[in-house]
Design brief:
The complex is a heterodimer of chains A (197) and B (269). Chain A is an alpha/beta fold. Chain A is built from 6 helices and 10 strands; from the N terminus they run βαβαβββββαβαβαβα. Chain B has 10 helices and 10 strands. The chains are: A alpha/beta (197), B alpha/beta (269).
């Protein structure tokens, strides 16, 4: 499980989180100067009235360019995409992102499960799902879908999470490929698709 | 999750039996919606579900109501309504007559929001609001102008954030958990069934609102619908879409000028 195995062939890393995940993200994102040809998609629970604050903050913290998410925007490698507030974020076979305003799932829109399941359908084994801190059970079913489709699953070590409920719930209901603290998640992301160890 | 091939079979059967074409809907969302109703209604085999849809027109109607998304709210995205109030309505107000089309109006919350803006601007008497949807059930709700009272606090906040200055309770009467909006707001509304997938333009408008409808369509259908709006829009008329929707994948943007940061475009030629 926790061996030093490099994941290759990854097209998308999708990161989900809720309460406390912003703290992890603002530690991780500034350190990612370059990635090896995959897109990063971030799905974080947020207030429906927060139209732009999260995007602005993460754009400020990120070295990679954050592409604004609009309906049917192409999903390109080496960019960051953030699920907008008050929409579910979905993945189309044509490698575009699409949006949906249907009912909340796990009291959330965007819901992590919805995006993880949709990404798993399109990207299968070229997908990595990372679940961060949170106090809601959203994300667990999504990680199961990613694993079932052949993707790789990473869960933040609950001991390192501000809110351990969400990663704990995942660990109780499935076997992640990796359980990592914040610094290890950063190193993991940087290692993906790299050939040298 | 249901299989892609099962979804394709359903799309083909619905078209063959009922003439309704879901073929150009966004697949990711449609698949989730169909999967949801399939499980909610307790099916375990897809062919049982298909056979029910084919043989029971009532169930077919119910299924369509369930898979088309009808989530809406009053004054959704207050900053958008603020721009309508401050920038767009004063321009429209110079016209002798204002024709507005809410395409995909769902249960009508945004149509009543518009009527409130027009009334406050002293323009409602010379306006007409066409409100259309593909779904006859939601239009019945829209006609009544009765919305759940539990939502009203959010709507009142949205109204205030959009620049509204009145006491929001002036616009409705609360009773038995519902808010019935004043009938004078509905006097200039015309509700009718219209399918953006297959129906054509039916009038010329000064303002067309179609918010969070195009997200359910694939790019080809989005192009069709944007061109239908273009055909239905007077020169210097306005097209308003949802906050994450764009015309840029569908039509030459040189024909349109975007208003500030909002998803409102003015037809300039």
């Amino acid at each position: 499980m926790e061996e030093n195995k490099i994941i290759t062939g990854c097209k998308v890393i999708i990161i989900g989180g809720s309460a406390g995940s912003l703290y992890a993200l603002i530690q991780i994102l500034p350190e990612i100067v370059k990635v090896n040809s995959f897109a990063i998609v971030i799905v974080v629970h947020r207030k429906s009235s927060d139209e732009q604050t999260l995007e602005d903050l993460l754009t400020l913290k990120s070295k990679l360019e954050v592409k604004p998410v609009e309906d049917k925007v192409p999903l390109l490698p080496n960019y960051i995409y953030i699920a907008p507030s008050n929409y579910h974020l979905l993945f189309e076979k044509e490698e575009t992102l699409s949006l949906d305003t249907s009912e909340k799932i796990n009291y959330s829109r965007p819901s992590i499960d919805v995006s993880f399941e949709s990404a798993a359908e399109v990207y299968g084994s070229s997908l990595i799902g990372i679940l961060l801190s949170g106090s809601n059970k959203d994300g667990t079913l999504g990680l199961q879908a990613i694993q079932a489709a052949g993707g790789t699953v990473v869960v933040q070590n609950p001991l390192s999470a501000e809110m351990p409920f969400m990663p704990n719930n995942a660990i109780l209901n499935m076997t992640p490929d990796f359980i990592l603290n914040v610094q290890e998640i950063l190193e993991f992301i940087l290692s993906v698709n790299s050939t040298e160890i | 999750m249901i299989e892609d091939i099962e979804l394709e079979t359903l799309i083909n059967d619905v078209y063959e039996y009922y003439g309704f074409d879901f073929g150009s809907y966004s697949k990711a969302s449609l698949k989730r919606r169909v999967n949801r109703i399939f499980h909610l209604d307790g099916f375990t085999h897809f062919h049982d579900f298909l056979s029910k849809v084919r043989t029971d027109p009532e169930y077919y109607k119910k299924m369509v109501d369930e898979i088309t998304v009808n989530v809406t709210e009053m004054f959704r995205d207050p900053s958008f309504y603020m721009v309508l109030r401050k920038e767009i309505l004063p321009l429209l107000g110079t016209k002798p007559f204002i024709r507005i089309w809410h395409a995909g109006c769902s249960t009508g919350e945004e149509v009543y929001s518009m009527a409130i803006l027009l009334k406050e601007a002293g323009l409602l008497h010379k306006s007409i609001l066409y409100a259309t949807d593909v779904n006859a059930t939601v239009l019945e709700t829209a006609k009544k102008g009765i919305f759940p009272l539990r939502m009203i606090k959010d709507y009142a906040d949205n109204y205030r954030d959009s620049g509204g200055q009145q006491d929001f309770s002036n616009f409705y009467i609360a009773n038995y958990g519902f808010a019935k909006f004043n009938e004078d707001l509905a006097e200039k509304m015309v509700f009718s069934q219209h399918n953006l997938v297959s129906d054509n333009s039916f009038n010329e408008f000064d303002l067309i609102l179609c918010r969070n409808v195009l997200i359910y369509f694939d790019n080809k259908l989005q192009q069709r619908v944007i061109n239908l709006f273009d055909d239905s829009l007077a020169i210097l008329g306005f097209l308003a879409l949802g906050t994450k929707e764009t015309i840029k994948y569908s039509i030459s943007t040189s024909k349109y000028k975007q208003i500030e940061k909002e998803k409102i475009w003015r037809k300039i030629k």
